[in-house]
Amino acid sequence: TESTDKDESCFKKFLKKIPYLKELGITTIELLPIFCFDPTDAPNGLKNFWGYSPINWFTPHFEYLSNESAEKNREEFRKFVEECHKADIEVILDVVYNHTSEGDSKGPAISWKGIDENLYYFIGKDKNYQDVSGCGNTIAANRGLVRKLIIESLKCWASELGVDGFRFDLGIALSRGENLSPLDNPPIFEDIECEPELIDIKFISEPWDCGGLYKLGDFPSKNTFTWNGHFRDDLRRFWKGDKDTAWNMSDKIKGTPSIYKEENIFPKTINFITSHDGFTLKDLVTFNRKHNFANREQNRDGDNHNNSWNHGIEGPTTNLLINDLRKRQQKNLILSLFISKGVPMILMGDEIGRSQGGNNNSWCQNNLLGWMNWEHAQQDLELLEFFKYVIKIRKKLIDIFNPSLLLNNQKHVNIPRYHWHGIKLDNPDWSSWSHTVAFSINKGNTNPLVWIGLNAYSKSIDFSLPKCKYNWLKVVDTSMSEISKPSIVSEKSVSIKSRSSLLIISEQVFGAKNNIF
């Protein structure tokens, strides 16, 4: 971040960006690992930038602090959290308890390995470290002393330093017992749920690990929300124009009930299109394949399964038609995210069109490629305004998109009810070649409050609108470059341009003056 004081710490610099986050509409920030980590754990000549190489679970990373003294460092971070709270922004920490920076049996002995490697790590009969983290070792999180250490670490950051929650990196790895066998009721999660100091803390997890274990709807901790990778993949595939995507798209919009099977509760899904792992939003619509040569691993690293589409030319182009389509697709993806049931998460910089040049694994790029660019000349201001607008709409319609009640449970009269349509009313097309999804939302037996049409087809399509006692207002049209004042839709149908979306809202929601905000 910008600073006139080169000695100013990262946390102090971050506070200067709180007004930006507030204006954008952010309510929670999730920080990549800030535990003290090994910055040299990277290919020769590069630097570990993300921090997934912990050497201590109790102290902030030294490069992020002023480093005057240990106590002042802790106070500096505590002050950072307090200032975020004053701005009504929660702080979630990405925590790495599944592995350490000590690597495999040939790796360095920094901490755990020197104390008791047979206690802290899974080690096979051949004396080799067992690894489902992809980093050379796996922490034996369900052994008594190891559990206690993890709990003490969580309590330190929550009770002493004031953070609001944690996101477990490769969290399902913490459910493994001896011989890496998955446990149905892992003691570590039972201990977390029973710890009084953690009772009001939010928990999020990656529900997968590098050993093939994947538990999305059945994660072994009832209080933990999970990153929904199926949401990411299905939305990407729908807007990419793939076959067999319409029904999956509808499933993700209504909270992924095919996986999160609970009724009448908040589906514990963290919905996202992009994250630090993978392409940025702009790169998702700009590249068909990864370009990770800067990582000095001959482009072997990073995921090959990206569901991305360059729209005709690989990489940046001056072709206006392609650039317009790419911009529209970014808007389509973001609108789809914010009209879906669940907790929406966005990646830093997606709102301004940040690119990593096609690098989908920037973990070792502590440079312009991995940084946020704060210069307005380098930002997509049209996209930024769209993000702000859609986030405001999401907040305004919280009662409609409120995920606290799932699906069409007939016991609750006033819960939002989804009515699925196609080109014609009440006639959804779930065929393999369908590229459209349309739906309206009612509360109880009232008039429809919202109608949304998504057209991922290559041509414009007309959609019938449901009858509404009040005027329909066109609020979002992703085919338009500028955000315009809501306009009355008087026709019985609307035309949605190719690869575009429409959000139409009843005048009942906003009142006759069309006052959205």
From TrEMBL:
An individual GO BP term: carbohydrate metabolic process
Residue ranges constituting the Glycosyl hydrolase family 13 catalytic domain according to the UniProt record: 5-394
CDD domains (alphabetical): AmyAc_Glg_debranch (cd11326)
Source superkingdom: Bacteria
InterPro entries, A to Z: GH, GH13_cat_dom, Glyco_hydro_b, ISOA1-3-like_C
Coiled coil: none
Record-linked PANTHER family: GLYCOGEN DEBRANCHING ENZYME
Name under which the protein is recorded: Putative isoamylase
Organism: uncultured Prochlorococcus marinus clone HOT0M-1A11
